[in-house]
Amino acid sequence: MSSHNKSEFLRLCMTSGVIGFVVAFLFNVVLVGFNVLGSAELLTTFGGAAALFVVWMLNGLAFSVLQFVIAVSGRDDDDDDHDGGHFAREYLAEPVLIPIEKDQRRRR
Description:
The protein is flat. It contains three helices and no strands. It starts with a helix and ends in a 35-residue tail after the last helix. The protein is mainly alpha-helical. The chain has a domain at 16-73. The longest helix is centred in the first third of the chain and has 31 residues, at 3-33.
């Protein structure tokens, strides 16, 4: 991997992380601001600062990974050898009919 590709990858990771944690911060502001399921009372009490930090970190990780996946899947890669994502299956064998004798007894 060349240094240009490494720096591009690092920039993508850092940008996705920053975007994810900013979105998580805004999500937590809305969560506490609208008092969703009584979260304002839980997260603003004496021990709530630690809980709010944990919620922010976990949401930040989730949103960062989601942002990274969206960014990577939306990239235009030049190393694709085919047009589109569909391929035709190549069947290597011909289907063969197999005769089956009917049993006189019925099985239940």
